[in-house]
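As a warm-up, study this chain.
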Amino acid sequence: MAENQSKAATRANSPAQAPVLRPGRAADPVPAPVEAGSQPSAPAAGADAAKGAEMLPVDQAPDTATGSEEASGNDQHRDAGSSKPERILAESRQRKLRLMLRQCDRVLLMDFELLAMNGWPDNFTMAEARRGRDLWLFSALIAAAIFLSGLTGFVPAWIAGGGFGAFVIILLLGIPAVRRIYTTKPSYLDLLMTRQRMLREARQHVAHLEGSDGLIWQCARMSDFNPALKNTRFGHLLRLSENRVLARQLTRREHVRLYLIYLLEAEKAYSRVQKAFFEGNQEAIDQGWEEVAAEPESRT
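Now compare it with the structure written out below.
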């Protein structure tokens, strides 16, 4: 009886027997025993660290919030350091574009009609007017010769009188007020005066555009936005503009037309520079670079 009770007590104190696996089912992997002197595995170390962190008091818990703030501050500092060269380059480019716009803004004051000189008398009209002038002079000389021959008695007096009357009429036809009565064609003198007037007005306009500092030689720096400004045929005009003597050297219509062509190309480049400046200004505003996006100073 006592033996049965001791066996029952021993069975009650012994641990419960592990369940038997069913036939055909794979057994669960058994963790390998850790040998003495070997380091624990990473998951176990992580679990121990987590348990230790949970057991720490509140005031000794790791300050994870401070670490994240420091990491974010380092990231922001790194971003600011990387964007600083870009901001400097953008500021330099905007300053360069602003200077171009400031120095070449007089291109917009160009008077195309005045510099094109569309009413310029062509060579055919000048040649025709020159033939009319030569005919008028020849007729006046013939009439004067007849009149003088009558004074010497070489021709009869009535022929000399007729020659004198013809000479007076021819002279009257040379007067512009009388000449406009029977013809609307300008005389050779009128065409010459028209050419001189148009050239004088064009030179005055060029002098106004060039000013005291010169214009087109400063616009040459916009050649990156319009390669046509690099053409060698404009080289002489650029040198004259840099020396501030361009307006005085424009003595022919071809010179003025060449100057007009350069201004048209410079106007194209100016519009592209203006577009690039506004785009850079908007980009600086988007990036928050207030110094780069500053407006140009007002001109006095």
